[in-house]
Amino acid sequence: MCTGLPNSPTRPATVLRSGPSSALAAAVTTVAVHVLSHRKLAWGILAEPVDVDVSASRLMSRREIAGELELRIAAAVRAGHLPAQDTAA
Hints:
Layout: H1 11-16, H2 20-37, H3 39-46, H4 52-78
Helix pairs in contact: 2-3, 2-4
C-alpha cells in the first residue's frame, strides 16, 4: 500500500509553489500531515515488522516518498537555496 504522496490531492501544491524551497517545504508538510493523520497506516508502511510480501510494498512506498523529496531537494540545490546535497543516499 502506498502513502499516496505521488497521487495525493495535495501534490499540486508541491509542484506549483513559487520556488524550489516552497515546493520542498510543501512536500515535507504533505508527508508530515499524512503521517500524523494516519499514524497506524504510516507505522505499517514505514516500520512495522511484516512478512516478505508487505516488505516489498513498503520498500516501494519509501522509494516513492524519497523520490519526491529528492526531486525537490535537487531543485532547491540547483536554485542555490540549499548547499550541495547527496540526494541519492
